[in-house]
# Entry
Amino acid sequence: MNSTNRRTFLKQLTVGSAVAAGVSILPAKASEEGASDQAMGVLVDTAVCVGCRSCEWACKTAHGIPAGDIEDFHDRSVFKEFRRPDHTSYCVINEFPAEGSAKLPLNVKYQCMHCIEPACASACIVGAFTKHETGAVTWDGSMCIGCRYCMVACPFQIPTFEYEKAIQPNITKCDFCYDRTKEGKLPACVESCPVEVMVYGPREDLIAIARERIKRYPDRYIDRIFGEKVVGGTSWMYLAPVEFDKLKFPPLGVKPAPGVTEAIQHGIFAYFIPPLALFSWLGGVMWLTKRKEAILKEVEKMEEKENE
Ligand code: SF4
Ligand code: SF4
Ligand code: SF4
# Structure
């Protein structure tokens, strides 16, 4: 279903004519452009990270999120609590006590994993997510109806919603610096790291590099590349000196999450929600979204008048 058809389809829902039109609902495809052999990725070596948070600062700066002074990012008191990426920071560093072969505390960067088969994209019923050939999974706010199903579907709890934003709240997450990488630049976080924790490159090459490091330094790393196979593989992959559950990575299998998501989605559509109830719910969500857009336009008009 292309974007025009999707919009037409959703328009039909708002006036309650979808059932009469005989439209059947299918989950959005996990990948509109498809995973590519040329897909890029990042290998993160947690044994090397010093927790300086330059990557967090660079990510915010590259995405227009107020970052403040880089010096503030050297305050280590932030590590007292485990943090997750959100709309104020698309990536975060956490700290764990020294363990295994590590003599110093372990610092670990978290962001969207850019899954090969992204559950967020599979769950989104209007196709607001796109899996690009580069490996990046991006989100289009103009298509989003605010149902937040992507948040439920993501096995890594990555997409977050701007709850405190009254007008046009967005889903937010790392976009793998799609605009930068399209121009041949490195992701901002990768470029900023002073100790080269992250390597950006073709995913297959990164797996070979990771295997070589494990072979060469068996005392430094456990024999596992997180992301190589988990949930069908991810673009971001990790090496670590300890088991990944000790670094708060979720215990996931190798089965791609979209399969699970689609089964749930089909279940919902087929058995649990009567079509008319579903359509009126979607219509309600869209009405609220449109209402917010209308309010925003009115506010803009008022501001323009005030400035005249
Ligand atoms: S980590 Fe979550 S948000 Fe990122 S691509 Fe995978 S399913 Fe989507
Ligand atoms: S790839 Fe870009 S958006 Fe993602 S964490 Fe790095 S700097 Fe942020
Ligand atoms: S910039 Fe590099 S060393 Fe510093 S916290 Fe980020 S990944 Fe770790």
